[in-house]
Design a protein that fits this description.
The protein is mainly alpha-helical. About 50% of the residues lie in helices and about 5% in strands. The protein folds into 2 domains: about 190 residues, Thiamin diphosphate (ThDP)-binding fold, Pyr/PP domains (Rossmann fold, 3-Layer(aba) Sandwich); about 55 residues, no CATH class. It has 11 helices and 3 strands; from the N terminus they run αααααβααβαβααα. Strands 1-2-3 form a 3-stranded parallel β-sheet, with helices on one face.
Length: about 250
């Protein structure tokens, strides 16, 4: 274990580090996960794929006041290491040791028990609604992988969250992999979005430029968006008439 990781007993310690030091933290966490799981067993790939996410969220948000909800505890090993369980991590999934999943009785940083996929958004929404009812201001963040996003419960949560329009953050960990390689329309859609980042950047820069045009900029942006929406509707209608399905 690198010395830098020995300096982190809580997210407060993590926040004391510079941004330049965080890659070393990620490397050290990965070494510890691989070393431990090779002995105890566990979900190694999914947690290795969420190391930077765990570091970023604990670096930015004020946990445990702000709540992190991990979709399936498989992603949460780095989270456990950063929240005071570094020295006990060697007991992972052992009798009397720490759990392979998030467990509220184990740590105040574990907000819910998550042993199955696709529940994070609905759980986070419930916590956000409760916060609003008591007049709280803390943040609620759900972290969900692209594999878990294919389940109906995730979409139900998104649908209700959009209806209520509350303060809820959903982080999509799009790594193109769940238990095995992802298949289906949603996976293909997300992949196209990733490969289309250059086009998105160009579109955003063009929109900013148009907005900067005195007097007429705002109107031009609205006109362009209406034309884009009209084109999308026409495309969907054409696909429907041809008997094909698409996600846009």
């Amino acid at each position: 274990m690198k010395d830098i990781l020995k300096r982190i007993d809580s997210p407060a310690d993590l926040k004391k580090l510079s941004l330049e030091e965080l890659p070393d933290v990620a490397s050290s966490i990965r070494e510890l996960i691989v070393e431990t799981v090779s002995k105890t067993g566990g979900h190694i790939a999914s947690s290795l794929g969420a190391v930077e996410i765990a570091i970023a969220l604990h670096y930015v948000f004020d946990t445990p006041k702000d709540s992190l909800i991990w979709d399936v505890g498989h992603q949460a090993y780095a989270h456990k290491i950063l929240t005071g369980r570094r020295d006990s991590f060697s007991t992972l999934r052992q009798m009397g040791g720490i759990s392979g999943f998030t467990r509220p009785s184990e740590s105040p940083y574990d907000t819910v028990m998550s042993g199955h996929s696709s529940t994070s958004i609905s759980s986070a929404l419930g916590m956000a609604v409760a916060r609003d009812l008591r007049g709280g201001r803390e943040k609620v963040v759900a972290v969900i992988g692209d594999g878990s996003m294919t389940a109906g419960l995730a979409f139900e949560g998104l649908n209700q969250a959009g209806h209520l329009k509350g303060d809820l953050i959903v982080v999509l960990n799009d790594n193109e992999m769940s238990i095995s390689k992802n298949v289906g329309a949603l996976s293909n859609f997300l992949s196209r979005k990733i490969t289309g980042r250059f086009a998105t950047k160009v579109k955003d820069e063009l929109e900013s430029f148009v907005k900067s045009i005195p007097k007429i900029g705002g109107g031009l942006v609205n006109l362009i968006k209406k034309a884009e929406d009209s084109s999308s509707r026409s495309l969907r209608r054409a696909c429907s008439l041809r008997g094909s399905a698409s996600i846009t």
